[in-house]
Amino acid sequence: MKGLFKSKPRTPADVVRQTRELLIFLDLHSGSRGGDAKREEKMAELSKNIRELKSILYGNGESEPVTEACVQLTQEFFRENTLRLLIICLPKLNLETRKDATQVVANLQRQQVSSKIVASEYLEANKDLLDTLISGYENMDIALHYGSMLRECIRHQKFNTRLLSSTNYITKRQAIKLLGDMLLDRSNSAVMMRYVSSKDNLMILMNLLRDSSKNIQIEAFHVFKLFAANKNKPTEVVNILVTNRSKLLRFFAGFKIDKEDEQFEADKEQVIKEISAL
Hints:
Layout: H1 12-29, H2 36-58, H3 67-79, H4 82-89, H5 95-108, E1 112-113, E2 116-117, H6 118-125, H7 128-135, H8 143-153, H9 157-164, H10 169-184, H11 189-195, H12 199-209, H13 214-229, H14 235-243, H15 245-253, H16 262-276
Antiparallel strand pairs: 1-2
């Protein structure tokens, strides 16, 4: 008779829905002192659910992820504000659950449903979440996790571009710094080559070099130098650099930073050399 009363296995969508409900509970009760036992119980459930989401998306030691399960999970995750809740509640999670949540968000940035990146469409409608992730850099406890999430989010070209043109100084500066860090990472060499082969990206960086903030100019320079160093510049990139050669050389001749930096000066000299030789 026991078999008749077995609970029905949860679908991926069920796991997402329960996760969302638990995140809502955590968000509403995070500051309360009463009901600690209940809160701890809910936190344990939430940690278990996020681990299960990770297992569905990545598979486990015994099986690969199932495409249909990943599609169901992705659709339900972005159908409502689960991503927003997860980002907002991240500081309230324990360390291991933060790690799992970060991996879940990273994977979802690449999941396709009917050939569409659903995460990209969601972020298009919820641009403020990128500012939330950027501001997370100020909190050392969660900077690593928010940074990992942000790296995955800005792989979507449109959001990368939007962050670089943000009117928020902190957002813009951190976005350029993060972009530079990503492009200089050897594991991203293929991404870097694609990036520096784009005339549109070059124009964005040239505009950032003219920013009123010296700090933003410096961060932009560390990305711009990759365009100059590219030995296989596309014709359209070369044409832009040649057209603006005189302006660029004048700019770099007077481009200085407050403290002495031999590496900066060496990089600047190399950029001047590369542009002069075009």
